[in-house]
Amino acid sequence: MADGYRIIGAEMSPYSVKVRSYFRYKAIPHHWVLRNAASQAEFEKHAKMPIIPLLVTPEGAGIQDSTPIIDRIEKLHPDPSIHPDDAVVSFISALTEEFGDEWGNKWMFHYRWARDVDQISSAGRIARMRGPDAGDDQHAVFTEKVRARMVDRVWFVGSNADNAPRIEAGFLEMLALLDTHLSSRPYLFGGRPAFGDFGLWAQIYEMWTDPTAGALIGGGAPHVLDWVHRMLWPRAEGAFETWAALEPTMMPILTEQVGRLFVPWTAANEKAIADGPEEFSVTLGNHVWTQKPQKYHARSLGMLRAKYAAVPDKSALDPVLEAAGCLAGLRG
Q: What's this model's pTM, rounded to 2 decimal places?
Protein backbone atom coordinates (compact mmCIF):
# COMPACT_ATOMS: atom_id res chain seq x y z
CA MET A 1 0.00 0.00 0.00
CA ALA A 2 3.01 2.30 0.23
CA ASP A 3 2.62 3.46 -3.38
CA GLY A 4 -0.51 5.51 -2.76
CA TYR A 5 -4.18 5.49 -1.93
CA ARG A 6 -6.75 3.10 -3.35
CA ILE A 7 -10.19 4.50 -4.17
CA ILE A 8 -12.57 1.57 -4.47
CA GLY A 9 -15.66 2.84 -6.23
CA ALA A 10 -17.74 2.82 -9.38
CA GLU A 11 -18.20 5.13 -12.33
CA MET A 12 -21.95 5.25 -11.73
CA SER A 13 -21.56 6.20 -8.06
CA PRO A 14 -21.65 10.00 -7.62
CA TYR A 15 -19.85 9.80 -4.30
CA SER A 16 -17.07 7.71 -5.84
CA VAL A 17 -16.39 10.08 -8.74
CA LYS A 18 -16.58 12.99 -6.30
CA VAL A 19 -13.63 11.58 -4.34
CA ARG A 20 -11.76 10.72 -7.54
CA SER A 21 -12.16 14.26 -8.86
CA TYR A 22 -10.82 15.63 -5.57
CA PHE A 23 -7.76 13.37 -5.66
CA ARG A 24 -7.09 14.36 -9.24
CA TYR A 25 -7.26 18.05 -8.36
CA LYS A 26 -4.90 17.63 -5.43
CA ALA A 27 -2.52 15.49 -7.55
CA ILE A 28 -2.45 12.88 -4.80
CA PRO A 29 -1.11 9.52 -6.07
CA HIS A 30 -3.93 7.00 -6.09
CA HIS A 31 -5.34 3.94 -7.80
CA TRP A 32 -8.93 4.00 -9.06
CA VAL A 33 -10.23 0.48 -8.41
CA LEU A 34 -13.65 -0.61 -9.65
CA ARG A 35 -15.69 -2.24 -6.91
CA ASN A 36 -16.14 -5.43 -8.90
CA ALA A 37 -12.36 -5.59 -9.50
CA ALA A 38 -11.46 -5.31 -5.82
CA SER A 39 -11.34 -8.53 -3.87
CA GLN A 40 -14.12 -9.14 -1.38
CA ALA A 41 -11.47 -9.89 1.23
CA GLU A 42 -9.87 -6.48 0.77
CA PHE A 43 -13.22 -4.72 0.89
CA GLU A 44 -14.38 -6.52 4.02
CA LYS A 45 -11.04 -5.91 5.72
CA HIS A 46 -11.29 -2.13 5.39
CA ALA A 47 -15.02 -1.34 5.08
CA LYS A 48 -17.28 -0.88 8.08
CA MET A 49 -20.36 -0.53 5.84
CA PRO A 50 -21.24 -2.13 2.46
CA ILE A 51 -21.01 1.19 0.62
CA ILE A 52 -18.67 2.93 -1.80
CA PRO A 53 -16.43 4.76 -2.09
CA LEU A 54 -13.96 3.07 0.19
CA LEU A 55 -10.61 4.80 0.53
CA VAL A 56 -7.72 2.61 1.61
CA THR A 57 -4.80 4.74 2.82
CA PRO A 58 -1.11 3.93 2.20
CA GLU A 59 -0.98 2.86 5.86
CA GLY A 60 -3.78 0.36 5.34
CA ALA A 61 -6.62 2.24 7.05
CA GLY A 62 -10.09 2.33 5.52
CA ILE A 63 -12.24 5.48 5.30
CA GLN A 64 -15.81 5.62 3.98
CA ASP A 65 -18.31 8.36 3.13
CA SER A 66 -17.17 10.95 0.60
CA THR A 67 -17.44 14.00 2.86
CA PRO A 68 -15.37 12.59 5.77
CA ILE A 69 -12.88 11.24 3.22
CA ILE A 70 -12.32 14.68 1.74
CA ASP A 71 -12.31 16.36 5.16
CA ARG A 72 -9.65 13.91 6.37
CA ILE A 73 -7.42 14.14 3.30
CA GLU A 74 -7.69 17.93 3.12
CA LYS A 75 -6.03 18.16 6.53
CA LEU A 76 -3.14 16.03 5.27
CA HIS A 77 -2.87 17.76 1.88
CA PRO A 78 -4.01 21.36 2.43
CA ASP A 79 -2.56 22.83 -0.77
CA PRO A 80 -4.17 23.87 -3.00
CA SER A 81 -6.97 24.44 -0.53
CA ILE A 82 -10.58 23.75 -1.48
CA HIS A 83 -11.74 26.19 1.21
CA PRO A 84 -11.80 29.91 0.34
CA ASP A 85 -10.27 32.29 2.89
CA ASP A 86 -13.46 34.37 2.96
CA ALA A 87 -15.57 32.97 5.83
CA VAL A 88 -18.85 33.60 4.02
CA VAL A 89 -17.74 31.98 0.79
CA SER A 90 -16.13 29.06 2.62
CA PHE A 91 -19.29 28.17 4.52
CA ILE A 92 -21.53 28.66 1.48
CA SER A 93 -19.23 26.20 -0.27
CA ALA A 94 -19.69 23.67 2.55
CA LEU A 95 -23.46 24.21 2.43
CA THR A 96 -23.43 23.67 -1.33
CA GLU A 97 -21.50 20.43 -0.87
CA GLU A 98 -24.15 19.14 1.52
CA PHE A 99 -26.94 20.34 -0.77
CA GLY A 100 -25.36 18.45 -3.67
CA ASP A 101 -24.88 15.25 -1.68
CA GLU A 102 -28.40 15.15 -0.30
CA TRP A 103 -30.78 17.18 -2.48
CA GLY A 104 -28.88 16.80 -5.75
CA ASN A 105 -28.99 13.05 -5.24
CA LYS A 106 -32.78 13.26 -5.46
CA TRP A 107 -32.50 14.67 -9.00
CA MET A 108 -29.94 12.09 -10.02
CA PHE A 109 -31.67 9.02 -8.62
CA HIS A 110 -35.10 10.09 -9.86
CA TYR A 111 -34.02 10.81 -13.43
CA ARG A 112 -31.91 7.63 -13.58
CA TRP A 113 -34.83 5.35 -12.69
CA ALA A 114 -38.02 7.23 -13.67
CA ARG A 115 -38.26 6.40 -17.40
CA ASP A 116 -37.79 3.25 -19.45
CA VAL A 117 -34.92 4.62 -21.52
CA ASP A 118 -32.93 5.62 -18.42
CA GLN A 119 -33.77 2.42 -16.57
CA ILE A 120 -32.56 0.28 -19.46
CA SER A 121 -29.40 2.32 -19.94
CA SER A 122 -28.48 2.44 -16.25
CA ALA A 123 -29.37 -1.15 -15.42
CA GLY A 124 -27.43 -2.35 -18.44
CA ARG A 125 -24.32 -0.42 -17.46
CA ILE A 126 -24.49 -1.66 -13.88
CA ALA A 127 -25.00 -5.23 -15.06
CA ARG A 128 -22.03 -4.99 -17.42
CA MET A 129 -19.85 -3.48 -14.70
CA ARG A 130 -20.66 -6.33 -12.32
CA GLY A 131 -20.50 -9.05 -14.96
CA PRO A 132 -18.11 -7.86 -17.67
CA ASP A 133 -17.72 -11.34 -19.19
CA ALA A 134 -21.40 -12.31 -19.18
CA GLY A 135 -22.91 -13.50 -22.43
CA ASP A 136 -25.85 -11.67 -24.01
CA ASP A 137 -28.54 -13.84 -22.46
CA GLN A 138 -27.02 -13.73 -18.99
CA HIS A 139 -26.44 -10.00 -19.29
CA ALA A 140 -30.09 -9.43 -20.25
CA VAL A 141 -31.31 -11.40 -17.24
CA PHE A 142 -29.00 -9.54 -14.87
CA THR A 143 -30.03 -6.20 -16.40
CA GLU A 144 -33.69 -6.88 -15.66
CA LYS A 145 -32.89 -7.90 -12.09
CA VAL A 146 -30.94 -4.69 -11.51
CA ARG A 147 -33.69 -2.63 -13.11
CA ALA A 148 -36.43 -4.14 -10.95
CA ARG A 149 -34.43 -3.72 -7.76
CA MET A 150 -33.43 -0.11 -8.39
CA VAL A 151 -36.81 1.09 -9.63
CA ASP A 152 -38.30 -0.31 -6.44
CA ARG A 153 -35.95 1.90 -4.40
CA VAL A 154 -36.82 5.37 -5.76
CA TRP A 155 -38.93 6.00 -2.66
CA PHE A 156 -35.67 6.36 -0.76
CA VAL A 157 -35.00 9.79 -2.29
CA GLY A 158 -38.65 10.81 -2.18
CA SER A 159 -39.43 10.04 -5.81
CA ASN A 160 -43.10 9.18 -6.13
CA ALA A 161 -46.07 10.20 -8.26
CA ASP A 162 -46.69 13.38 -6.26
CA ASN A 163 -43.07 14.47 -5.85
CA ALA A 164 -41.79 13.58 -9.33
CA PRO A 165 -43.04 16.76 -11.02
CA ARG A 166 -41.49 18.85 -8.23
CA ILE A 167 -38.14 17.07 -8.56
CA GLU A 168 -38.02 17.65 -12.29
CA ALA A 169 -39.23 21.25 -12.16
CA GLY A 170 -36.72 21.98 -9.40
CA PHE A 171 -33.87 20.53 -11.42
CA LEU A 172 -34.77 22.56 -14.50
CA GLU A 173 -34.88 25.70 -12.36
CA MET A 174 -31.51 24.84 -10.86
CA LEU A 175 -30.01 24.09 -14.27
CA ALA A 176 -30.96 27.56 -15.52
CA LEU A 177 -29.65 29.27 -12.38
CA LEU A 178 -26.43 27.28 -12.46
CA ASP A 179 -25.83 27.96 -16.14
CA THR A 180 -26.12 31.69 -15.52
CA HIS A 181 -23.79 31.50 -12.54
CA LEU A 182 -21.15 29.52 -14.45
CA SER A 183 -21.30 31.77 -17.51
CA SER A 184 -18.67 34.09 -16.03
CA ARG A 185 -16.44 31.72 -14.03
CA PRO A 186 -14.98 28.22 -14.47
CA TYR A 187 -15.99 26.93 -11.03
CA LEU A 188 -18.75 27.69 -8.54
CA PHE A 189 -16.69 30.00 -6.37
CA GLY A 190 -14.23 31.46 -8.86
CA GLY A 191 -11.12 30.33 -10.65
CA ARG A 192 -10.56 27.06 -8.81
CA PRO A 193 -12.73 24.26 -7.42
CA ALA A 194 -14.07 24.49 -3.88
CA PHE A 195 -15.66 21.90 -1.60
CA GLY A 196 -19.06 22.79 -3.03
CA ASP A 197 -17.99 22.01 -6.58
CA PHE A 198 -17.17 18.41 -5.78
CA GLY A 199 -20.47 17.66 -4.03
CA LEU A 200 -22.78 19.31 -6.56
CA TRP A 201 -20.80 18.32 -9.64
CA ALA A 202 -20.78 14.61 -8.83
CA GLN A 203 -24.58 14.38 -9.00
CA ILE A 204 -24.83 16.43 -12.18
CA TYR A 205 -22.01 14.50 -13.81
CA GLU A 206 -23.91 11.27 -13.20
CA MET A 207 -27.05 12.86 -14.65
CA TRP A 208 -25.10 13.88 -17.75
CA THR A 209 -24.22 10.21 -18.37
CA ASP A 210 -27.92 9.23 -18.48
CA PRO A 211 -30.16 9.72 -21.55
CA THR A 212 -32.90 12.05 -20.33
CA ALA A 213 -30.99 14.29 -17.93
CA GLY A 214 -27.93 14.21 -20.19
CA ALA A 215 -29.98 15.66 -23.03
CA LEU A 216 -31.29 18.42 -20.77
CA ILE A 217 -27.77 19.37 -19.69
CA GLY A 218 -26.11 19.00 -23.07
CA GLY A 219 -28.93 20.66 -24.98
CA GLY A 220 -29.79 23.53 -22.69
CA ALA A 221 -26.97 24.42 -20.32
CA PRO A 222 -23.67 24.92 -22.18
CA HIS A 223 -21.84 26.45 -19.23
CA VAL A 224 -22.90 23.63 -16.93
CA LEU A 225 -21.75 21.16 -19.58
CA ASP A 226 -18.34 22.84 -19.71
CA TRP A 227 -18.13 22.61 -15.92
CA VAL A 228 -19.10 18.93 -16.01
CA HIS A 229 -16.15 18.23 -18.30
CA ARG A 230 -13.80 20.59 -16.46
CA MET A 231 -14.41 18.89 -13.11
CA LEU A 232 -13.29 15.51 -14.41
CA TRP A 233 -9.72 16.85 -14.20
CA PRO A 234 -10.08 20.12 -12.25
CA ARG A 235 -7.22 22.55 -11.88
CA ALA A 236 -6.57 25.95 -10.40
CA GLU A 237 -7.19 28.56 -13.08
CA GLY A 238 -7.40 31.61 -10.84
CA ALA A 239 -8.37 32.77 -7.36
CA PHE A 240 -11.54 32.31 -5.37
CA GLU A 241 -13.93 35.25 -5.68
CA THR A 242 -15.33 37.41 -2.91
CA TRP A 243 -18.93 37.04 -1.79
CA ALA A 244 -19.66 40.47 -3.30
CA ALA A 245 -18.63 39.15 -6.72
CA LEU A 246 -20.49 35.85 -6.35
CA GLU A 247 -23.68 37.14 -4.75
CA PRO A 248 -25.61 38.33 -7.85
CA THR A 249 -25.84 34.83 -9.33
CA MET A 250 -25.14 32.63 -6.31
CA MET A 251 -27.77 34.15 -4.04
CA PRO A 252 -30.67 33.04 -6.28
CA ILE A 253 -29.38 29.47 -6.02
CA LEU A 254 -29.21 29.74 -2.23
CA THR A 255 -32.64 31.32 -1.97
CA GLU A 256 -34.63 29.30 -4.49
CA GLN A 257 -32.97 25.91 -4.07
CA VAL A 258 -31.16 25.64 -0.75
CA GLY A 259 -33.28 27.87 1.46
CA ARG A 260 -36.70 27.24 -0.08
CA LEU A 261 -36.38 23.48 -0.67
CA PHE A 262 -33.41 21.78 0.93
CA VAL A 263 -33.19 23.35 4.40
CA PRO A 264 -36.92 22.96 5.24
CA TRP A 265 -36.76 19.38 3.98
CA THR A 266 -33.69 18.46 6.01
CA ALA A 267 -35.14 20.01 9.17
CA ALA A 268 -38.41 18.10 8.67
CA ASN A 269 -36.49 14.90 7.95
CA GLU A 270 -34.52 15.32 11.17
CA LYS A 271 -37.70 15.80 13.17
CA ALA A 272 -39.30 12.76 11.57
CA ILE A 273 -36.33 10.60 12.53
CA ALA A 274 -36.60 11.82 16.10
CA ASP A 275 -40.37 11.36 16.26
CA GLY A 276 -40.47 8.01 14.48
CA PRO A 277 -43.23 8.20 11.83
CA GLU A 278 -42.91 5.99 8.75
CA GLU A 279 -43.29 9.03 6.51
CA PHE A 280 -43.46 12.80 6.88
CA SER A 281 -44.80 15.77 4.96
CA VAL A 282 -43.37 19.27 4.65
CA THR A 283 -44.37 22.31 2.60
CA LEU A 284 -41.61 23.24 0.17
CA GLY A 285 -42.44 26.40 -1.69
CA ASN A 286 -46.02 26.02 -2.87
CA HIS A 287 -46.18 22.24 -2.67
CA VAL A 288 -46.39 19.53 -0.04
CA TRP A 289 -43.56 17.00 -0.13
CA THR A 290 -44.13 13.56 1.42
CA GLN A 291 -41.59 10.77 1.82
CA LYS A 292 -40.11 8.25 4.23
CA PRO A 293 -37.34 9.63 6.49
CA GLN A 294 -33.72 9.31 5.37
CA LYS A 295 -31.85 8.20 8.48
CA TYR A 296 -28.32 8.85 7.27
CA HIS A 297 -29.05 12.45 6.43
CA ALA A 298 -29.56 13.45 10.05
CA ARG A 299 -25.89 12.57 10.64
CA SER A 300 -24.65 14.64 7.71
CA LEU A 301 -26.81 17.56 8.84
CA GLY A 302 -25.11 17.34 12.23
CA MET A 303 -21.73 17.52 10.52
CA LEU A 304 -22.82 20.62 8.59
CA ARG A 305 -24.10 22.28 11.75
CA ALA A 306 -20.74 21.60 13.41
CA LYS A 307 -19.02 23.39 10.54
CA TYR A 308 -21.38 26.33 10.97
CA ALA A 309 -20.74 26.41 14.73
CA ALA A 310 -16.99 26.42 14.07
CA VAL A 311 -17.12 29.70 12.12
CA PRO A 312 -15.54 32.10 14.64
CA ASP A 313 -17.10 35.33 13.38
CA LYS A 314 -20.57 34.97 11.91
CA SER A 315 -21.31 38.69 11.60
CA ALA A 316 -21.03 38.64 7.81
CA LEU A 317 -22.29 35.09 7.31
CA ASP A 318 -25.54 35.15 9.28
CA PRO A 319 -27.20 37.95 7.28
CA VAL A 320 -26.54 36.02 4.07
CA LEU A 321 -27.97 32.80 5.50
CA GLU A 322 -30.95 34.68 6.94
CA ALA A 323 -31.72 36.31 3.60
CA ALA A 324 -31.49 32.93 1.87
CA GLY A 325 -33.83 31.26 4.38
CA CYS A 326 -31.15 28.93 5.72
CA LEU A 327 -30.17 30.32 9.12
CA ALA A 328 -32.85 28.83 11.37
CA GLY A 329 -32.33 25.32 10.00
CA LEU A 330 -28.59 25.51 10.47
CA ARG A 331 -28.88 26.71 14.04
CA GLY A 332 -31.15 23.76 14.85
A: 0.97
